[in-house]
Amino acid sequence: MSAPRVTTSPQPGSEPVIVGVGSLVGRPNDAAAPDAVGWMTEALRVALSDAAMASPGAPTESAIAAEVGWIGIPEGTWRCSDAGAVIAGRLGLGGPGGVHSVRADVGILQQRLIAEACEAIARGEVAAAAVVGGEARARDRAIAKLGGEPTQTAGPEGVEPDEVIHPADDLMSDLELERDLATPAAQYAIVEDALAYADGLDRSALRRRLGDLWAGFAAVAADNPTAWDRSAPSADVIVSAAGGNRMVAEPYTRSLCSQWNVDAASALVLMSAAVADRLDVPAHRRVAVEATAESNLILPLPQRAEPHRWPAFEAVAEALASHLGVPVAGGLGADEVDLYACFPSAVQVQARALGLPLEARALTVTGGMTFSGGPLNNAMLASTVAVVDRLRRHATAGRSARGLVTSVSGMLTKPGAMTLRSGGAAAPFVALEVTDEASRRSPALAVDPALAGPAVIDGATVVPTFEGTFRAVALVSAGVGGNRDVPGKGDASAAGGPEPRTRSVATSDDPEAAASVAELGGAGRSVVLDGAGGFAFAP
Length: 539
What we know:
32% of the residues lie in helices and 23% in strands. The chain is an alpha/beta fold. The strands form 3 sheets. Strands 1, 2, 3, 4, 5, 6, 9, 10, 11, 12, 13 and 14 form a 12-stranded mixed beta sheet that branches. The two termini are 45 Å apart.
């Protein structure tokens, strides 16, 4: 494995620790709820209060707020010119020195902001930092249903944050946008089909696996006071496309998909160990950030050689294991785990890479993004808050414990993972960047939109159309040889070897083809491509 890029190694006393956390959740159909900036403001107020309520003689909320000289917010579905500055002004952050506000655009991992905050603290640039995310889509929908126009905090006109983190490239290719792979549900459903084929599961067995896994997540959410849906539906209800639980992308019903129409917000307050000492924050209330690791390789689904694996995430996990001196298998030695759980296939791919069982309580403390809620810019932050709460319980009981939180950006595109520690000696903080290693492990298949002739499906799904019909969408490949895009390998056919494998995306509006994919799955089956983006099953 090539060495990851280490961006920060703190000096003694500058190690970043989380000292305050807050998560809030609204309820459906509440048209009087705050807007997104309002939710984020209140979540950070709770986090500041959490940091200040530690013990007699602990600092006041305003004293902690005055230490916060950096605030990071992931971009959401809302629009505010500089939400960080607005929130800082409302809560009196930064004192006379003011606050450095940062926005991470969509396509940047939420974890990245935590890493940036830790690095600013470790370098001694700020004493304390805050990371906040939140959405109010449920509130906005409730207002719209009543015929109103949802208002939003606009922020200062023409003002931008002090710093904006942009993604290096688009997360999705034109071919995906053109051929019905624009939605996350469709892409993750194709990965699900590839997983089922790799495991030799028929559709009935696949639905049992999905129902059992997601019912376990629902049960965890039922015990989570900040979960959006605590109704704990059964496995049969989750996989059945009955009532309002429509099929979104075969085999995913609505209850197997992330739910982003929620009102929710979460916030973290971080500071250096030295500042925590100065403010008398008790040791059992501190949670150290040991390490973050991420890959920023962008490899669209049609180019991935094995849709059911994620080499970039494997590189992230191995980089953390090397830093911590622990094996990957068993989840990096973590006692509390929350995997980014937007769809079941994302959970399964991560769990396999980490050597974790497909048992909900080994994979989540929140209940995942279907039941806990999956707002665009807040899910990973809510996971972090929940893991911090668990780790504090361990510390209060006199135990040392490690937490693991993972991140996903795009369609299994950019992975991230972070380890936290309470009640014992933490590994020295590092922010690891493993894009080079991820690229080395992830050869890109050639893609040909006009691919024609015999091919094999690598993964497929069925999606509803605006016309009320159903369309089969398939990831297909032709050729059985090497990969012309693997560095140093060259074109296998040029050396007299088999034709390199070429990938495409194809669709079919034939009702029989859609019914066949729904009944039997698609991966591993032979098709004929018409060269114009269509396919038919081979006779």
